[in-house]
Write a structure and sequence with these properties.
The chain contains 13 helices and 54 strands. The chain has about 900 residues and is α+β, with helices and mostly antiparallel strands. It comes from Shewanella schlegeliana. GO terms for molecular function: endonuclease activity.
Length: about 900
């Protein structure tokens, strides 16, 4: 354990600041109850003559447990406190007689714990001695009846200023009256006597308003008075006035009896489960610019917003930049004891009555007060047929883990040949995606009751970060999370899949039961090694072994689940490769070897990969995790391969984290390669500068890659070859495998072979002017023709002639022609795979028919005959 401070005086100075007896003489601790079981309460009263504005300064009540000097559970005091009035905090597990005021973890004390009341960090009162553990209780040598354990203690009426020396001996003087254990009749009023039996009348107020994201909307109405209200004795209505209208909109009529301290809640039917407290109602069809009015027999008794005004998007407060009626949860201050009865007055007005919480805060629904609900209202014990947990369904299995055969399930991987870790990872992704059945977020509740069942108690589940065993039926379906469990997304859902329509959101392989408070503390932080820089997270005042570094947004889970966390993150990184996005609506999730930044909160990234890799080794797969894998498989249909086959972690992630399962030879130096060579020219590729350390002898194997084949072409450091002839520029690819006899590494080398176009000097000789029907020979001459050159002839235009082409000689019999015509022949010379063509033309003369005389062209008739001659000639020839 790390000790931050050892001296009580130092601790008091650092945490509490300068001691001041004049900080506030009116606010004191007036009653302390440490009774049987959870019957614990603490009362603070204004014993002065003027009202205290608790918001004008920072008033805190802090618990210091078992002699510690580090602050524990803390309550901030807010609102106003009239003279003679009291604030009471009670333990959520106390008997009803002690449930005055608000439930608070500040009451997690026993007789050996200290409580300190401060104003702006200056001590104004205390109970117990800071930095001392008295054993079981503080006692008074001058009063044998005095004890801080199993007693009720009330401050004497003569005490009007606090005890400001938190490190002094306790008790100081004779300030406390002692009452028997479990005496509760003085809670809620200052003074030495029991409170008056005369109860204040019932008072109906709007105590909570939620306008959150999407349909997360709710409104709470509470009886903050001292007697029950018969809602049927009068007409009580809650009415919505939308967008500045004065005509009533959706309305709820209240009925039944509302006991003191009890609440009615109306929620939007489309809200998330956490907001579904009470009854669904259309009165929640509001946005930040709509007004709500509570009436009794049509007389306004309270309101929210200003009726008849549309403020735009929301009502705001110029004195409180955080206040807004849109995207916020607002709770009525404890100090408000009367309704706001002028519905047309400015809102929230000069005296803002509301405490502001972040958007989508739901843990205060169902109970009065500024704090989260205490969970003391136990949900009805579900009937067996309702399912494995509260409001859960019984799932139908989709797979049978008793018949699972890993050799078959992973056969494509076990028999596969993968060039690298990414190929193996992709193959695993295909396997575990194949039979994956999408679960609804509600079905996840049921799945976790099977997967995370306590091995020693089949009615409980185990929370991931606390290790606490808790009833399956204590799942947090609404209201406060105190004493409940909820669903922790180990891969934070904001990192890539914020919607429950995305498969990763409901993938049970990374969802685990968790204490809501610890879940909130973890938030969406990355995983990393931050034990030395963070603070240990407490659960019920006790360290959990989880550490949070708020500066770097780093979360380090307890040692017992570090391997579980690692294998869940690796599963998500492998399952969601972005290849089946059309089905899963999921991006490619990537585990990175660093802590992500705040700007990357919505990106599909999470860290820290190699820390997780180390945790996987530290915390090996156990039977609990194996059973969990089987149960998720039973209801979701797919498995976590890193639980079934732990060796796959190294195969997939080892190389990235310095633990390569197939390590390669480390070499230095460059391979000298020409950028290009001309076809048929000699070249060398030189690897002689590559070394693997002084005195290490290396061997070489050069292979040329041709298509899918590898051809061995050399075994020396220097490769000498001649470039082939190519039709066009072509890239040659080689691999060089370098070995020291034990390890090896492979280098890729490529170079371009440049094509040299074929050129030939071709000329023709022979008679190229003939009469139709005549024969002629044409001879081609090719200067400096390469050996092996072949030749071919073809006619490319003109009337088809009879010809033969042998080598360089062309013999042609000219065809009959109607008019003079040119025949074109082409000689193609081929060398290897290249060719070159040249053409030669032969002119063929037409022979006139016997008996035909050219007409005289004089005169108009002669001119006409001249025009008609071609046509007549053609017809004559055709005849």
């Amino acid at each position: 354990m790390r000790i931050k401070m050892s001296a009580v005086a130092t601790a008091t100075a650092m945490f509490l600041g300068t001691l001041s007896t004049a900080a506030n003489a009116n606010l004191v601790i007036t009653e302390y109850i440490e009774g049987s079981s959870s019957n614990k309460a603490l009362e603070i009263s204004n014993v002065g003559n003027s009202t205290l504005d608790l918001d004008a300064n920072v008033y805190k009540l802090t618990l210091f447990s078992n002699g510690k000097t580090e602050p524990g559970n803390t309550e901030m005091l807010t609102g106003t406190l009239a003279p003679g009035k009291s604030i009471v905090f009670h333990n959520s597990g106390a008997a009803d007689a002690f449930k005055v005021g608000n439930a608070s973890t500040i009451t997690y004390f026993n007789g050996d714990d200290a409580l300190v009341l401060t104003k702006d960090d200056a001590v104004i009162d205390r109970f117990g001695k800071l930095g001392e553990d008295p054993g079981s209780a503080w006692t008074d040598p001058n009063n044998a009846d005095f004890s801080s354990a199993n007693k009720t203690l009330r401050r004497k009426a003569s005490v009007t200023t606090g005890d400001t020396d938190a490190a002094a001996v306790f008790p100081t003087g004779d300030q406390w009256l002692v009452f028997d254990t479990d005496t509760s009749d003085g809670l809620g009023c200052a003074g030495e006597s029991a409170c008056s039996a005369e109860a204040t009348p019932g008072l109906l107020l709007i105590t909570e308003y939620i306008e959150g994201s999407s349909s997360n909307k709710a409104i709470e109405i509470s009886n903050v008075g001292g007697t029950a209200i018969d809602l049927d004795a009068n007409v009580y209505k809650l009415t919505l006035f939308g967008n500045g209208k004065t005509e009533p909109g959706n309305t709820e009529t209240l009925s039944g009896t509302l006991e003191p301290g009890k609440s009615l809640v109306f929620h939007n039917s489309g809200a998330a489960d956490a907001f579904k407290v009470g009854n669904a109602s259309t009165v929640t069809y509001f946005n930040g610019d709509d007004a709500l009015v509570l009436t009794k027999d049509d007389v306004v008794i309270d309101r929210f917003g200003k009726r008849g005004e549309d403020p735009g998007s929301a009502w705001t407060d110029p004195n409180d930049a955080n206040f807004s009626t849109a995207n916020k949860t607002l709770r009525r201050k404890n100090s408000v004891t009367a309704g706001d009865t002028v519905a047309e007055a400015d809102f929230p007005g000069a005296n803002n009555q509301w405490v502001v919480f972040d958007v989508d805060t739901s843990d205060g629904l169902g109970c009065t007060g500024e704090s989260a609900c205490d969970g003391s209202v136990t949900p009805p014990e579900p009937e067996p047929e309702t399912g494995p947990c509260t409001n859960c369904e019984t799932l139908t299995p989709v797979a049978d883990p008793t018949t699972f055969n890993g050799e078959i399930y992973y056969s494509d991987v076990l028999s596969g040949d993968f060039a690298n870790a990414d190929e193996l990872k992709n193959a695993l992704s295909i396997i575990i995606a194949k039979d994956h059945k999408y679960l609804t977020y509600k079905q996840v509740w049921s799945t976790l009751t099977y997967a995370d069942q306590d091995p020693t108690n089949d009615k409980n589940v185990i929370e991931i970060y606390t290790g606490n065993s808790i009833s399956k039926y204590d799942n947090q379906t609404s209201g406060s999370g105190a004493g409940k469990w909820n669903r922790e997304h180990v891969w934070a859902k904001s990192h890539g899949f914020p919607s429950d329509s995305q498969w990763g959101y409901t993938d049970a392989h990374h969802l685990r039961p968790s204490d809501p408070g610890i879940n909130t503390a973890r938030s969406n932080n990355d995983f990393g090694a931050c034990r030395d820089t963070g603070e240990e997270v407490l659960f019920n005042g006790v360290g959990t072994g989880n550490y949070l570094d708020k500066t770097t947004d780093c979360w380090e889970p307890r040692d017992e689940v570090k391997g579980d966390v690692a294998r869940m993150i690796m599963y998500m990184d492998t399952r969601y490769q972005g290849t089946d996005t059309a089905t899963t609506n999921m991006p490619d999730l990537v585990a990175v070897d660093r802590l992500t930044t705040t700007a990357e909160d919505s990106e599909p990234l999470i860290g820290t990969l190699c820390t997780l890799y180390a945790w996987n080794k530290l915390d090996a797969v156990d039977t609990y995790e194996q059973n969990r894998n089987n149960q998720v498989y039973k209801y979701q249909g797919n498995r976590n391969p890193f639980i079934d086959r732990p060796e796959l972690v190294q195969q997939v992630y080892g190389a990235a984290c310095g633990d390569d399962p197939n390590p390669g030879l480390i070499v230095e130096g460059d391979i000298v390669t020409p950028e290009s060579v001309t076809e048929e020219s000699a070249y060398t590729i030189d690897a002689s500068a590559v070394t693997a350390g002084e005195g290490v002898t290396l061997t070489y194997k050069w292979e040329q890659i041709v298509g899918e084949e590898k051809l061995l072409v050399g075994d020396k450091a220097i490769l000498s070859l001649t470039a082939p002839m190519v039709k066009a520029d072509e890239t040659l690819n080689f691999t060089l495998t370098i070995s020291n006899g034990t390890l090896e590494t492979t280098k890729a080398v490529s170079l371009i072979v440049t094509n040299v176009p074929l050129t030939l000097d071709i000329s023709f000789s022979g008679n190229t002017l003939v009469t139709e029907g005549d024969k002629t020979s044409i001879t081609a001459t090719v200067a400096d023709a390469p050996e092996g050159t072949s030749y071919s002839w073809k006619q490319v235009s003109g009337n088809t002639a009879v010809f033969t082409g042998t080598g360089l000689t062309l013999d042609v019999t000219s065809p009959s022609v109607s008019i003079d015509q040119v025949l074109v022949f082409e000689l193609t010379a081929t060398v290897g795979e290249e060719s070159l063509s040249e053409s030669v033309s032969i002119e063929v003369k037409n022979t006139e028919e016997p008996g035909w005389t050219k007409p005289d062209g004089a005169g108009s008739l002669g001119g006409l005959m001249t025009l008609l001659l071609p046509l007549m000639w053609w017809r004559r020839r055709q005849g």
